[in-house]
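Supplementary Methods, section 5.1.

A reviewer requested that the exact input to the structure prediction be made available. We therefore reproduce it here, unchanged from the version used in the analyses.
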Amino acid sequence: MIKYLSIFLLGLTSFATSCGEGKQKEETKVEDGRILIEIPNMMGDSVYSFVEKQVAFGPRVPGSKAHAECAKWLESKFNSYGAKVTMQKFKADFHFGASAEAVNIIASINPEKSKRVMLSAHWDSRYVADKDKERKDEAILGADDGASGVAVLLEIARLIQQYPLDLGVDFVLFDAEDQGDEEILESWCLGSQYWANNFHIHNYRAKYGILLDMVGSKGARFVKENTSMAYAPSTMNKVWEVANELGYKNYFIDEESEGVIDDHYFINTILSGSIPTIDIINRPKNSRFGKYWHTHGDNMEVIDKRSLMAVGNVVTTVLYNESVGAF
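The structure derived from this sequence is encoded token-by-token as follows.
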């Protein structure tokens, strides 16, 4: 299905998109200076199934069988959507003394394009349920904390294959994000730290980045996180404006919250803001990240198609408008 988003923009008259196997060019509608850009709709069943598939592998802790099997599946899915996939392997040294081979999965659409946007999420799940009352030493499934963001990115890649756009898009799935200790800052987000110091291609550049973390729970509440506002306020505000225009203001709340140590923190600080990156992350009113956070309750029962689709439709709309210079 296709929806239209009205953008006030003068001087732009058309937008080429692929529609079905015929790949016929279609003109955007222009009404009173408004450009009505065709945007593909995210499919709820599809994106939900992508969460479900990841969870079915089991806890995706680096070094585990589930982790290795999920990596192969993610690589094959992005390949099937026509992306150029890079498996960026690195050694992850954890704060508790162990180490494992980890891998950042980078899938590039239109790799020849110089104008690029980076979309990211972490794909590992936590090695312990440290916030739970029972089975605290066991790894968690991470349905929301990891799998939800990855699922949205997979669905966006699927849509872009069906409806190509004139923009380079890099989907970066960071590994070893969730294996840290709250007392040791650098023990978190090992994959994004490695990537920011070792780009997958020489001299990589993107106009901005959007990180998705915990975007699929029931009643998700996304606010303007302060690290994002410090490094990428214009991107943050534009994303929230799109959300409002699409009717998702009950998800994208126009208020700020304290900063979060997440992959975007290290991207912004290590790269000194050269790829300004925002974080779309659930911040409930009455708990830090949700009562299920870092517990065995982070399973498919917390996932809601509506939350996944809200985030996915907003980010997809941002991309297609970026492709025609509306942002």
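The first helix runs from residue 44 to 56. These observations are discussed further in the main text.
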